[in-house]
Amino acid sequence: MNLAAFQSALADVVAGRDGDAQWPDLSTAELERLEDVAAQPGMRAIRMLYQSWRLTKILTLLPMTVASLGDQTAAALLRKFWLQRPALGPYFVEECIAFLDFLEGEGVTADGALADVVVFERARLELHSDITAGAASASRAVVLDHDPVDLLAAVARKNLDAASPSTEPIAVLGEVTEIGHELWTITSGDRSGTVLDLGERR
Q1: Span 60-118, pLDDT tens digits
Q2: φ, ψ of residue 6 in degrees (nearest 5)
Q3: To bridge 12 with a disulfide, which of 17, 69, 78, 154 should be the other Cys (CB 3.0-4.6 Å)?
Q4: CA 112, CA 163: separation in Å to the nearest integer?
């Protein structure tokens, strides 16, 4: 028995990625064992728990992206993402960055306000990663094509069409302070100096 190959195939079964063709290194007996596992009454519940665990990661750290996509579109894209790649361990940030990479690869973020939302939330993830790695404070700079104030308001209303395109790119500097607050300061354009307090960064 190729234990590593069998364990990998078992993980595929739990994730719902069944199919003998993708496991050429397994013996007939191993394939039959996997079929038995997949047919167990509790497998449906295990798969639901697995997907709920992965969904929790996305909803926790990418709320703006999910809201901007809309429930149905987000659900369809997440199902496709989960089938294409396994969970990246217990790490929330890595899973969420992989999902953003997937969206870009699918062409979902080619243009428009959604592209800015993804750029912004990627920067937020990077801030989060720095803090969880032990940094006392962290900062990131991004450039957006939409007014950040209007963009955040449009996301909150789940209506990206309400976001105002800017006549020129707008620079925004984000930081997580020593007391744990996430602040974004607009550093160019008419709203330069405006501070967006996104609250405590968990």
Answers
A1: 899 999 999 998 999 999 989 988 887 766 678 888 999 999 999 999 887 789 999 99
A2: -65, -45
A3: 17
A4: 9
Give the distance between the most distant pair of CA atoms in the chain: 69
Domain boundaries, the chain: 3-40, 45-200
The answer to whether 95 touches 58, Cβ cutoff 8 Å, is yes
**Block residue for tokens 């700079």:** 141
Task: Tell me the three-class secondary structure of the chain, residue by residue.
Answer: CCHHHHHHHHHHHHHCCCCHHHCCCCCHHHHHHHHHHHCCCCHHHHHHHHHHHHHHHHHHHCHHHHHHHCHHHHHHHHHHHHHHCCCCCCCHHHHHHHHHHHHHHCCCCCCCHHHHHHHHHHHHHHHHHHHHCCCCCEEEEEEEEECHHHHHHHHHCCCHHHCCEEEEEEEEEEEECCCCEEEEEECCCCCCCCEEEEEECC
Per DSSP bridges, beta strands 195-200 and 181-186 are antiparallel
How far is C-alpha 61 from the chain's CA centre?
A: 7
